[in-house]
Design a protein that fits this description.
Number of helices: 9
Distance between the termini: 5 Å
Structural class: alpha/beta
Order of helices and strands: HHHHEHEEHEHEEEHEEH
Number of strands: 9
Shape: globular
Number of domains: 2
Strand order of the largest sheet: 1-9-8-2-5-3-4
């Protein structure tokens, strides 16, 4: 898959993360934003091939002009750096204003005996949802990359423990599938990203932003196999200290053959993803050529 293989780790090492958390206990996040936009982002744009990929995304998929695409490439990287800073600000104890659109959808499933699947995307700042969408009486299982930096995992564990969230570590041996199956069988919530490949390369091809794109089969296979409901949750940055969570019910006909169920569920997810991307085009954070399979 070439560039499509994602390492899944947060940039930096343990001491850098610890330093940032300590600094954010006392420093306004806007100061860190400014430092990053002036000194960090320009260097990343010069050294990282992501600048070309995101430029193509704005030019070819969103339809911006050459000049606007170039400017938005810089803005996109600035906003991404802000979402990373916000994550560490949360670890440092800072709070953000969070508005939830569709909380009744989440709550209606959370009070049921049966478990359900919550699908996310690499747009916005999904981790914020883990500190906001909490089902008091239903355990929440978040599938996370097993190779993430230990400093990040330690802070996630501390934050998630307070909100009844358990982490399931995705590894190459696919053992996490058994944990997912058990969690859903026990009537729990399972959260999974549905826009990146982890392990299996099986896919469903769906038209996304006017061009065919491949989405991992796994999340849609899990939901339909267990015959559980599914929702899409996207957490988008609205302003410096505000996020908005969008919860949407995903639909598929459980009476159809399972292959058609998986495709219907994937199409429902992609339709919601496309709506979010069009509304927040600068918060697309898949920094590889999402649509090009010949080079990848």
């Amino acid at each position: 898959m070439g560039e499509r293989k994602w390492t899944g780790t947060t940039y930096g090492n343990g001491w850098m993360h610890r330093w940032l958390i300590r600094a954010l206990k006392y420093v306004d996040v806007r100061f860190i934003y400014a430092f990053s936009s002036i000194f960090v982002v320009p260097v990343c744009l010069l050294l990282n091939p992501s600048r070309k990929i995101i430029y193509q995304y704005f030019k070819e998929r969103i339809g911006y002009s050459t000049i606007k695409s170039a400017w938005m490439t810089y803005v996109n990287h600035c906003i991404f750096s802000e979402t990373v800073i916000d994550k560490f600000a949360m670890y440092a104890g800072k709070e953000f204003k969070v508005e939830v659109d569709g909380y009744d959808i989440f709550q209606s499933l959370a009070i049921k005996e049966k478990g359900f699947v919550q699908l996310s995307s690499h747009i916005g700042n999904y981790e914020i949802a883990g500190y906001t969408l909490v089902a008091k009486d239903k355990p929440f299982n978040a599938l996370v990359f097993g190779g993430e930096k230990q400093s990040v995992m330690d802070n996630r564990d501390k934050m998630f423990t307070e909100t009844n969230i358990k982490m399931i570590f995705a590894k190459g041996d696919m053992e996490h599938l058994f944990e997912i199956d058990k969690a859903l069988s026990d009537g729990e919530i399972v959260s999974m990203p549905a826009d990146r490949f982890w392990g299996s390369q099986k896919y469903i091809e769906i038209n996304f932003l006017n061009k065919p794109a491949r989405f991992p089969l796994g999340p849609f296979s899990v939901a339909t196999l267990k015959e559980v409901d599914a929702i899409a949750v996207n957490v988008m940055k609205e302003s410096t200290l505000k996020y908005k969570i969008y919860v949407s019910k995903l639909s598929y006909d459980k009476s159809k053959p399972r292959k058609e169920q998986m495709r219907d569920l994937c199409q429902s997810y992609v339709s919601e993803l496309e709506k979010m991307v069009k509304q927040y085009p600068c918060q697309w954070f898949n920094f590889y050529d999402f649509w090009n399979y010949e080079r990848n």
